[in-house]
Write a structure and sequence with these properties.
It is a single chain. With 366 residues, this protein is of the alpha+beta class. The protein has 2 domains: 7-161 and 203-243, Jelly Rolls, CATH 2.60.120; 255-359, Homeodomain-like (Arc Repressor Mutant, subunit A, Orthogonal Bundle). It has 16 helices and 11 strands. A hairpin with a 2-residue loop joins strand 5 (119-124) and strand 6 (127-132).
């Protein structure tokens, strides 16, 4: 079982790989040679890379010989997520080659490009975007793109399986309207060539999270997928802490959609005491307009939306405590435990007691 490398060790590895790339580039006078797969194949054959098994930092599947490499390169025009991401994982992280004229391609998964060091240019379909140190840009599946980075840059490509992205987009980005629009525009097929750009402060803590992800790619250890997802979620929280509401995307949410996300966050923060009147007062809106926003954006009434928020909190109490339903009802702002029982059964398909047994089949924690 290989050991997990520290962020400092991963930084040293990336610096060494950059030195190898810089050594190779000036010796190739014709930049068109970087369109030939054999150039990359020869690069990955270098002793330092082979000795430390570092080729996997560049490619998920490493060709065994030049004939396999030529076939791989032909397929590289478009990679579905089965080919771009290692089987059994929802996330893969790779280092970008700092070579010019890399091959444009598309992928069947969402991708986040993080410029940890240096700068580069992303060509996304027919648009170009200048990226600088600390920038993170997400782009949608099936978009042809080309990333060219400057010498000695460190750019990481974080590939995200589409199914996993659907699962986390509402939970991780529920309080980030630009991100909500980015994912919504793809799911609803409203806008192609969209992107989601964060300008971060590139703090050491933020870099370390990314380096932990990359280190996990090298390690062959149990729970690899779960640990990668943990680090990615932490990566997203740093993104939002730094510049969540100021993220940039092609389109924008309507005023009602913006209000909706703010109202939902207010309900999550104040589920015990919130009602329609206090919510309307908080946002200086009429009760009728709040109700209209909730119905228009989510196709649910205000009461239904508040009930869903409370039900999620009830689930936490049932799974993590031995508290009675009467106390849980009081803690979640529901005056009648029997009403809570009926609503819970309606939304989950099981009674609170059955849910508790299913969630905590062993000893319930106090």
């Amino acid at each position: 079982m290989s050991t997990q490398k520290t962020p400092e060790e991963m930084r040293n590895i990336l610096d060494n790989l950059n030195q190898l790339e810089s050594y190779l580039f000036p010796r190739l006078s014709d930049e068109s040679i970087f369109e030939d797969v054999s150039t990359y194949f020869r690069f990955l054959e270098q002793h330092f890379i082979k000795k430390n098994d570092l080729a996997k930092l560049y490619f998920q599947q490493i060709p065994q010989d030049i004939m396999d490499a030529q076939a791989y390169w032909k397929e590289f025009v478009h990679l579905d997520d089965v080919y771009a991401i290692i089987s059994g994982l929802d996330i893969c992280v790779y280092k970008q080659f700092n070579f010019p004229n890399c091959k444009p391609h598309s992928s069947g998964c969402f991708e986040c490009i993080y410029i940890m060091q240096g700068s580069g240019t992303l060509r996304l379909s027919d648009q170009s975007y200048s990226l600088h140190e600390g920038d993170c840009i997400f782009h949608q599946p099936d978009e042809t793109y080309l990333l060219n980075t400057d010498p000695n840059s460190i750019a990481l490509n974080i590939e995200l399986r589409t199914g996993y992205t659907y699962d986390f987009r509402n939970s991780l980005f529920s309080d980030c309207p630009p991100a909500q629009y980015f994912f919504k525009s793809y799911c609803d097929k409203e806008l192609s060539h969209n992107y989601l750009l964060f300008h971060t402060d590139n703090s050491r803590e933020f870099q370390d999270v990314a380096l932990h992800m990359l280190g996990e790619m090298l390690a062959e250890r149990p729970y690899k997928n779960e640990i990668l997802k943990h680090y990615f979620e932490l990566f997203v929280f740093y993104l939002k802490r730094c510049c969540g509401v100021n993220a940039k995307t092609v389109g924008r949410l309507s005023s009602q959609e913006l209000y909706y996300h703010e109202i939902m966050q207010y309900l999550k923060d104040n589920y015990r005491t919130a009602d329609l009147e206090s919510t309307a007062a908080r946002f200086h809106l009429s009760k009728n307009y709040v109700s209209r926003i909730m119905r228009s954006v989510s196709d649910r009434t205000f009461i239904e939306s508040l009930s869903l928020v409370r039900i999620e909190k009830v689930k936490e109490y049932l799974a993590e405590t031995e508290l009675s339903l009467e106390i849980i009802a009081e803690l979640t702002g529901v005056s009648d435990p029997s009403y809570l029982w009926r609503v819970f059964k309606k939304h989950t398909g099981m009674s609170p007691s059955k849910y508790r047994k299913a969630a905590m089949p062993g000893t319930v924690r106090k």
